Structures are given as C-alpha cells and as structure tokens.
Amino acid sequence: MLNIWLNVGCLVFGLVAWLLPLINLGIENKTKNNHWKTLSIASLSACAISLCIQFVIDSNWDKSDWDHNYTPYIALTLFTVTIILNVITLFIYRKSNEKCEHSSFR
Q1: Contact between 86 and 33 (Cβ < 8 Å)
Q2: Is the CB of residue 20 less than 8 Å from the CB of residue 70?
C-alpha cells in the first residue's frame, strides 16, 4: 500500500516539475512577472522530491520486476526535461528583461 502512495507522490511531483516552467512560459507579459524565479526554484525542488521518492521506491522494489530496469531512464528523463524547461524559461525571461531595460533608457 505504501508503494502505491509513493508512486502517486512521485508522479505528482514530477508533473509539477514540468508544469511550473510551462506556466512561466505561458504568461504573456513577461516583463511584469516577478515570480518566475520562484516558480523555477519550485520546479527544480519538485523534481528533486520526485527523484528522492523514486529512490525510496527503488530501494523497496523487488529486483526481479521488469519496471526496475526502466527506473534510471525515467528518472533521467524527468531530470533532463525539467532542466531544459527551466533553462528555456531563464533565457526567455532574461531576454525580455533586457529589452525592458534598454527601452526604459530611451
């Protein structure tokens, strides 16, 4: 029963890790969004929590199960996509802030 809740928690935190940068990218007025850094940190934290839960599941897992062989690939995919989404967010917000700063000097 515990593994079911751990799997649900791992999935929820993994989805949150991907959804927060997508929310950041979907905001239209990027120059007035002051919370993008907080959402990016929360995204990376959710990814870390999801991976920690996955390691707990992995330590309790029956090593003969077929799912056990795919766990590192799933964890690597979660981590890689989370980093890529947050880096894209960083570049887009940095670029929009530079445009805002340059236009305010004129």
Answers
A1: no
A2: no
- Residues 82, 47: contact at Cβ < 8 Å? yes
Q: In angstroms, rounded to a whole number, what is the distance separating the alpha carbons of residues 18 and 62?
A: 29
Task: Give the chain's end-to-end CA distance (angstroms, integer).
Answer: 63
Asked if 85 contacts 21 with a C-beta cutoff of 8 angstroms, the reply is: yes
**20-29, 44-53, 73-82, 91-100: which range is least confident on average?**
91-100
What residue type is 20 in one-letter code? L
**33 secondary structure, DSSP code:** -
Residue listed under structure tokens 């799933």: 74
Q: How far apart, in whole angstroms, are the C-alpha atoms of residue 38 and residue 41?
A: 5
